[in-house]
């Protein structure tokens, strides 16, 4: 009770700049702004190109953006 669960290192980017843009992208997705999320995730991936979490998040953001364009 009352203990915080720390995120596993695989759940967040390692690089501090990538982590910053990942967090901005996460906030954009929560706000319903996939275009900003995609932009921020692409920036994050330029710093940490092998990150599975960033690639997965980008795929989700791009799918959300495609859905928004199709409606």
Descriptive overview:
The protein is mainly alpha-helical. The protein is 68% helix and 0% strand. The chain contains three helices and no strands. It has helices spanning 16-30, 34-47, 52-70. Helix 1 (16-30) packs antiparallel against helix 2 (34-47). It is globular.
Secondary structure tally: strands = 0
| Low-pLDDT residue intervals, each spanning 5 or more residues | none
What Rg do the Cα atoms give? Answer: 13 Å
| Intertermini distance | 44 Å
Taking all residues together, what is the mean pLDDT? Answer: 87
Order of H and E elements: HHH
Specify the helix fraction band: 55-70%
For this entry, what is the oligomeric state of its chains?
Answer: single chain
How does the overall form come out from the CA principal axes? Answer: globular
Largest sheet: none
Percentage of residues in strands: under 5%
Total DSSP helices: 3
């Amino acid at each position: 009770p009352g203990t915080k669960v720390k995120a596993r290192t695989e759940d967040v980017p390692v690089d501090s700049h990538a982590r910053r843009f990942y967090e901005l992208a996460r906030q954009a997705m929560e706000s319903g702004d996939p275009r900003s999320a995609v932009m921020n995730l692409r920036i994050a991936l330029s710093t940490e190109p092998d990150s599975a979490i960033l690639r997965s998040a980008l795929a989700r953001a791009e799918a959300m953006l495609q859905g928004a364009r199709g409606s």
